[in-house]
Design goal:
Layout (H helix, E strand, L loop, with lengths): L15 E5 L13 E10 L6 E4 L4 E7 L4
Antiparallel strand pairs: 1-2, 1-4, 2-3, 3-4
Protein name: DUF2196 domain-containing protein
Organism: Halopiger xanaduensis (strain DSM 18323 / JCM 14033 / SH-6)
InterPro entries: DUF2196
Length: about 70
């Protein structure tokens, strides 16, 4: 898995991703990434594609979580 952030076009409902909420510092080492399944893809953003997880959390995708 590369460290490249996916684009909004590469994402769709049901994919499991790691996101960072907008008010979190993306560079911070102590942040807790949020992992969940995509419910809605809103579009590309400089901080990473903006999505809403099925849990209702909205944030920017940092990486796709590979299926085991």
């Amino acid at each position: 898995m590369s460290n490249e952030r996916p684009t909004a076009e590469e994402l769709r409902q049901g994919i499991t991703v790691e996101i960072v909420q907008g008010d979190q510092d993306v560079q911070s080492e102590d942040r807790e990434p949020i992992v969940g399944e995509i419910g809605t893809v809103y579009g590309d953003d400089p901080k990473g594609p903006e999505v809403e997880l099925k849990s209702g959390v909205v944030g920017h995708v940092q990486s796709v979580v590979a299926d085991e």
